[in-house]
Each structure stands twice: as C-alpha cells, then as structure tokens.
C-alpha cells in the first residue's frame, strides 16, 4: 500500500496538481490506508478487505466525508496498479459506499441583523480593523477565506466596482483558485468599497502588491487558526449562534438568491465549477406567485365541481 501510494503521489505531482491536494493525498495514505492495510500486497486486497476498512473508519469515529476521501485515494492507487498490471481489477468499484448518517440538508448562514451584530462585536484594535472589513467582504462577495487572504490591492477595481479573484492562500502557500471558474470578478458594493477605502487609508501595507487583509504587524497573511479563534470569539461576543467562517459565503449565496438573481449568474459570482452546487440556494429564490399558481390550478371551474371537491 505504501508503495502504491508513493506511485500515486508521484503521478499527481507530475500532472501539476496543487500542493494542498498532494498533501491531502499523502495524509490519507499515511494516516488511514498504510496503517490499516500494512504490507499486504495490492493483489491480495479485494472487496471484503476494503469493506472492512470502511467499517474500521466508522468504528474509529471518522466522518463519512473522511471515509469517502480516503476511498477516493485508494481508488486512485488501484487505478494506477491496474495500468501497471499489478492487479486485474479495481476492487474499490465493488465496495458499498458508506451512507452519511450525519449529513445536514440545510445550509447555514447569518441573517442581516446577525451580520451587523458580528461586525459591531469585532474589537477596535489593529487586528479588528482588518478583520471587520474581511468579514463584511466574505458576506458581501461570497469569496472563500483563502481567496480573501490572497487578495491584493491591485485586485480592487475601484472604477469598475469589481473585485477580481485571481489567487488563493491555502496551507501556507499562494496558488490559483480552486477551479478555473473560481478565477472571476465579483461586484463591489458601495458599503464594502467604503470600508475597504478606509482600511487602505489606515494600513501601512497599501502598495498594489500588498495584501488587502494583511496581518497589520507583518504585512503577511493572517494565521488561519488564530483568525478562526477571533472569529468565533466575535460571534460569542455578539451573542450570535456559532457558524463557520465559510458560512459567510453561504450568507452571500442565500441573500443573492432571495433577491432573485438568476442561478447561472450566481454560479459565476461564487465561482462554482458545477451548477448543481449553486442550486443549493434555489430554495431561497422569491416565490411570491407560487401559492397563486397552486390556487389557480385547483380552482373549480363550475359550481358542481366545487361541490364534488367537498364531498367525502
């Protein structure tokens, strides 16, 4: 398994996959796959052994998502092994995938008054003066955290009122956004433009190549773990229910959908590669006439029809 994993890492590295992706694959191999399968030859691993691995992941408290991701890496290992003729078939395709008992069909977001409470609760200090407009930007542009951390002043088009998303910052490295569609521009609303202009006046890091949401003391990207701790502290201070930073992105998606923006336009704004991802916001689109449509569809057309509907 370790040898097959090394071959997979070599393959995806040669294909130019992002370092964060390579690190994720390596982690699954080192933490989950190699310890479980040990030195067992790949051609000795079949559906039963992989099904046992799935059960093991569940017993040890691993989430369904983690199990799915580990299986995806394992599938990749066996696909390479099949091409090298080490195995005849890929046994992963025969495995019953785990069902998610913990999946939440609802997306989580903040109401407008909760966003305002969060912004008011941010401390008025050096870090707070950077993080307050960052939270507002996340809610008013739908940008991912990594995209915000990588945003530079040259990406703010004040004249066109656009924010251009060209880079991200993930696991300590700058890189391109999550997908090709993630490279995009998003509208710059007046309120956010005003907050960013104030930040530009206050910060010492205001050159075109400087980071918009830089650490005020170093000019470097914010430490993600410390940023999240301060974000959660601000939520508590605001007496707002706990959400993830990513849920500020959902706040943008739900608010824009509620305004009636076409789903295809929202897909472009949020940088979703798959349109199905954008459709999670479809339930929040205006539906003022739907009740009237149902009423019209079932409206009786004659007196005797109305009476027949009331009979048992």
How would the blueprint of this fold be written?
Blueprint: H1 2-14, H2 19-37, H3 47-59, H4 64-83, H5 112-121, H6 128-141, H7 145-149, E1 156-157, E2 162-165, E3 168-170, E4 173-175, E5 184-187, H8 190-202, H9 224-237, H10 247-258, H11 263-270, H12 275-278, H13 290-297, H14 303-310
Antiparallel strand pairs: 1-2, 2-5, 3-4
Report on this structure.
By secondary structure, this protein is mainly α. It has two domains: 2-94, Orthogonal Bundle (DNA polymerase, domain 1); 112-270, Orthogonal Bundle (hpI Integrase, Chain A). The protein has 14 helices and five strands. The strands form two sheets. It has a three-stranded antiparallel sheet with strand order 1-2-5. Strands 3-4 form a two-stranded antiparallel sheet. Helix 2 crosses helix 4 and helix 6 packs antiparallel against helix 8 (190-202). The longest helix has 20 residues, at 64-83.
């Amino acid at each position: 398994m370790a040898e097959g994993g090394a071959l997979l890492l070599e393959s995806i590295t040669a294909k130019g996959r992002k370092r964060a992706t390579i690190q994720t694959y390596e982690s699954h191999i080192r933490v989950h796959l190699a310890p479980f399968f040990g030195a067992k030859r790949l051609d000795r691993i079949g559906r039963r052994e992989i099904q046992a691995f799935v059960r093991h992941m569940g017993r040890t408290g691993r989430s369904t998502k983690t199990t799915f991701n580990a299986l995806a890496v394992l599938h990749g290992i066996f696909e390479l092994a099949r091409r090298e003729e080490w195995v005849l078939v890929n046994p992963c395709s025969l495995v019953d995938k785990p069902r998610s008992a913990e999946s939440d069909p609802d997306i989580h977001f903040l109401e407008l008054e909760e966003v305002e409470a969060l912004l008011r609760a941010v401390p008025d200090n050096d870090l707070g003066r950077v993080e307050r407009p960052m939270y507002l930007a996340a809610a008013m542009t739908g940008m991912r955290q990594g995209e915000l951390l990588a945003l530079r002043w040259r990406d703010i088009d004040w004249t066109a009122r656009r924010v251009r998303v060209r880079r991200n910052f993930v696991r300590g490295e700058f890189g391109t956004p999550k997908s090709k569609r993630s490279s995009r521009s998003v509208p710059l609303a007046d309120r956010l433009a005003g907050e960013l202009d104030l930040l530009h006046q206050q910060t010492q890091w205001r050159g075109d190549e400087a980071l918009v949401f830089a650490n005020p003391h170093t000019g470097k990207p914010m430490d993600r773990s410390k940023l999240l701790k301060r974000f959660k502290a601000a939520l508590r201070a605001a007496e707002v229910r706990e959400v993830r930073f990513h849920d500020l992105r959902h706040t943008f998606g739900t608010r824009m959908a509620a305004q009636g923006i076409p789903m295809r336009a929202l897909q472009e704004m949020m940088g979703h590669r798959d349109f199905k991802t954008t459709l999670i916001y479809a339930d929040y689109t205006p539906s003022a006439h739907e009740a009237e449509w149902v009423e019209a569809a079932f409206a009786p057309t004659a007196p005797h029809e109305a009476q027949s509907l009331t009979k048992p």
